[in-house]
Write a structure and sequence with these properties.
This protein is mainly alpha-helical. It has six domains: 56 residues, no CATH class; 35 residues; 41 residues; 51 residues; 57 residues, no CATH class; 45 residues. Helix 5 packs across helix 6 and helix 11 packs across helix 13. It is flat, with a radius of gyration of 49 Å. The two termini are 85 Å apart.
């Protein structure tokens, strides 16, 4: 791009009589902006730039590139015996292709067609290098340093290490050393606190407990004190004389709701509990223990009792909802929803 801009500016230098055009073609920023706009489909280009670029393209000198016609691909005929013999001798597709005067891709295609096992990439690990890698791993050298020294990949070094079950990596040795140190610390805490429970030991050394739980859970379970069994909470037993008193209080509360002058009061669990002065759990459990059945009134039953009370006082139920709601002492929306649900 820089060479093109330089050629463009030198081509129009001292050829334009207009000072504005001369400044336009002499500034590299303007020329670069015009060229970039020309290469984009979503940008428009001024007419002046179109004329200048056309003029430059017609009169500039440059090498003319002439491409030769594509030659026909040379057909290679190889027999199965030739390919099999080359692969048996050279072992890799690259070496066999060099010997037969073709490419490794074509050799691979021939091997697949003839059912010959092929290895397209030659192995970079010979027996001598493999012995060096194993010797360094036996000495305890980390796989990263082994890869740097022998110029192999870290993945290959770890794969060789995986074939040596008796050799541990540096990371695994470091983890085992930290785990052994955590075990010694945990045993020292057990000796210092022989009667401490597991929760207390865990609070005293949280990092040690976490390391052992991750790396040696079975050892931690066998060398830890037993967990404290939580005691079962025993509730306070009610006195034998309290249930009859509560039953009489519930009956008295229900009687109070029925003896009120005016519209009937709903005998709900909440109202009875508030009149008696006990909690919901105490009321339910006491009624269940005493086997006393109390008929509580639901919402729909309460609305029907209010309507029956108003009808008994000579009020007609065939009237507007708001008038009926005022007569029974309830909200207009309550009466309207009840009628809609009933219908």
């Amino acid at each position: 791009m820089s060479e093109l801009i330089r050629e463009f500016s030198s081509f129009f230098r001292h050829r334009l009589f207009d000072a504005r055009l001369d400044m336009l073609v002499s500034e590299p920023n303007y020329v670069e902006g015009a060229l970039r706009a020309l290469m984009r489909k979503d940008r428009a280009l001024h007419t002046v730039w179109c004329i200048l670029l056309t003029w430059f393209g017609e009169h500039c000198e440059g090498p003319l590139v002439v491409r030769d016609a594509h030659e026909k691909r040379r057909a290679i005929r190889l027999t199965e015996d030739a390919v099999r013999g080359a692969m048996h001798e050279h072992r890799t597709a690259t070496a066999a292709a060099s010997a037969l005067g073709t490419t490794s891709h074509q050799i691979t295609l021939f091997c697949r067609a003839f059912g010959i096992k092929v290895d397209s990439r030659p192995s970079c690990l010979d027996d001598h290098l493999l012995e060096q890698v194993r010797a360094q791993l036996l000495e305890g050298v980390p796989p990263q340093k082994v890869a740097q020294r022998t110029r192999i990949s870290v993945t290959s070094a770890y794969r060789i290490l995986a074939t040596m079950p008796d050799v541990q990596s540096a990371y695994r040795r470091a983890v085992d050393n930290r785990t052994d140190a955590a075990k010694q610390h945990w045993l020292s805490l057990r000796r210092e606190r022989p009667v401490a429970m597991l929760q207390e030991m865990r609070k005293a050394a949280p990092a040690t407990y976490l390391a052992l739980r991750r790396k040696a859970p079975d050892w931690l379970r066998s060398h830890s004190p037993a967990r404290a069994v939580p005691r079962r909470k025993v509730g306070i037993r009610r006195p034998a004389g309290a249930l009859p008193i509560l039953n009489r209080a519930v009956a008295l509360g229900i009687a109070c709701t029925r003896a009120q002058q005016g519209p009937p009061i709903r005998r709900s669990r909440y109202r009875v509990r508030k009149l008696v002065g006990v909690s919901e759990y105490a009321l339910e459990s006491s009624l269940r223990l005493s086997k006393t059945s109390v008929q509580f009134v639901t919402r729909n039953e309460h609305i029907q009792e209010r309507l029956a009370w108003a009808q008994g006082r000579g009020f007609s139920l065939r009237c507007a909802n708001w008038r009926l709601a005022r007569a029974v002492g309830m909200r207009d929306g309550t009466i309207k929803n009840w009628i809609a649900h009933k219908n």
